[in-house]
Amino acid sequence: QFYKNSFRVQWHNFIKIPLLLEIDGKINLFLLLVLINICSGVVYTVIFLFMSNTIEYNEWKFGARKESVIFSLRPFSTKLASSIQQGITSLALISTGAIGVSNIISQYQEESSQKIQEEIEKIITPEMTWGLKVWAILIPALMLFITLIITAKFYKLNEEQYQKICQDIEKRNK
Known about the structure:
Elements: H1 2-14, H2 25-62, H3 67-96, H4 99-107, H5 113-123, H6 126-154, H7 159-173
């Protein structure tokens, strides 16, 4: 019950998607999550392909095939990113003053959803809501844009270069 009520109260006003009809906040949230998951699948596929291409590039450049080292970087980078994400989330909650809301939710988790909802509505200010929107939407969007720029600038391996690398490796190994 708490789960349903918290999304009805919180997310209805928190997430607005201009391209979707505003029928109900729950529908918008659901559609947003579907869109995010579809995009995430594409991103993870691209990351995996980049890493696979990196194996051949590494062998071509340094003469040694180190699949295990390269593929072990993926879980390590994921864990590192998760740690950074937790730190940023904590920073966002502390800097907006919303850590109190988080603590109240933790404190009253086993109590009725109505009491939690009332406590949250008493504490949440427009400034907190705005700050959380900045931390949850604008900053991640900015970071994704910066990542796109960095990737476009430094990842120069295209299909033609990749084929040449594979041919050079094949010649070298004969």
